[in-house]
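Holo prediction — arginine.
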Amino acid sequence: MTDHTPAPVETESRTNALWGGRFASGPAEVMERINPSIDFDRRLWREDILGSKAHAEMLVAQGIISAEDGAAIAQGLDDIWGEIESGQFKFSRALEDIHMNVESRLRELINEPAGRLHTGRSRNDQVALDMKLWTRGAIDDLEVELKALQAALIGQAEQHTDTVMPGFTHLQVAQPVTFGHHLLAYTEMFGRDRSRLADARKRLNESPLGAAALAGTPYPIDRHRTASALGFDRPAANSLDAVSDRDFALELAAAAGICATHLSRLAEELVLWTTQQFRFVRLSDAFSTGSSIMPQKRNADAAELVRGKAGRVLGAFTALAVVMKGLPLAYGKDMQEDKEPLFDAVDTLGLCIAATAGMIADMQANPAAMRQAVEAGFPTATDLADWLVREAGVPFRDAHHVSGSLVKQAETRGCGLADLPLDVMKAAHPALDERIYAVVSVEASVNARTSFGGTAPVRVREQVAAARQRFLDGDGS
Ligand code: ARG
């Protein structure tokens, strides 16, 4: 998705060759700055040329232009493709946008037949088409990137199905969970992100081409033909809607915003986990940064940036929604403002997904630190109290008290509940016997949680296999 096309070059101010028939003078200088979109829509050049080729081919098939003109147009468009790809094409702000830059160059290359290309279409359906094709491609790219991120998460989860860590609520140690289980939670989120993208893709796949300016066209065009040539399921049913719909951009921006939110939560955990206080995870050198003054530092800058960039991605949805909310049908130039937020959201999200996949794939978990943290939190104190209630008929209020006194002892000794000697246990309550160790160890706690979707290693191993099948071998649904 990176745009390598060269920057536009200035051309002299003059009346526009493509629409300037009724204009006596050129635009004001400020108009030349506010009006053009070529600085950012030049990245639509592939979509623009493909759309024009499909349109010209249809015009020939329908007998609207001659086969010779169609051939000249196709050849000219191929030549322009080559010029842009090789960086030779001169983009011009005076020609406003990618559509007129391409068409104007076509005229230079093939003369008169170029003027027949725009028969039965308008820049309004053309730009809607280009944006839809671009959005579709962006969705396909993001899908691939998200799948790679899921592969990294599943790979780590597989190695840590039995690694016990604290599970948190309110960021306080709550109950032991397995690290693999924790990572698979994110795998699910990114799976839903993929399905949101796939869903948006299905809905956007109707071609606006041939809606013309807004009302359709008197030429006997075949919109079904261009729709299928460009990989659409069908032409959009209503020409007014076709040129003014930007739902597809809003849907991608919304899905991108939700995905960025997921990435940001994971990034926040990476930031926490890599601190001296947690030490749950060590990022590889490739994903850590040092401090220019404090030699001991290993900062998780990439994670912080992923967290920070979520703001931009979420902002794109707001920007787009506000552009669209007051627009009467059909096209308004306001809609030129759809591009920068959407392009930025997609570029930013792609970068964040790739950086996160890299961090996850390379990271080294520290099971010893996780264990220390989980035991320091005495997350099985409730299990101990419940056991006294269940096995010895102790009233819960008393059992709670006994368990609390043992937590205090363990705290003083600097050990976990499971490390307390049996005589200490018995002193707290005579009904406690060696069976309690099968209850208060963190392993026992996670092993017991075998309900579907639970944290027990036996379940997590199944979940790893299932996730691999659904998300990596299957289509992600
Ligand atoms: N650059 C314009 C855009 O991005 C293309 C469509 C212009 N159409 C028009 N009638 N002025 O929306």
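READOUT: The chain has a mean pLDDT of 94.
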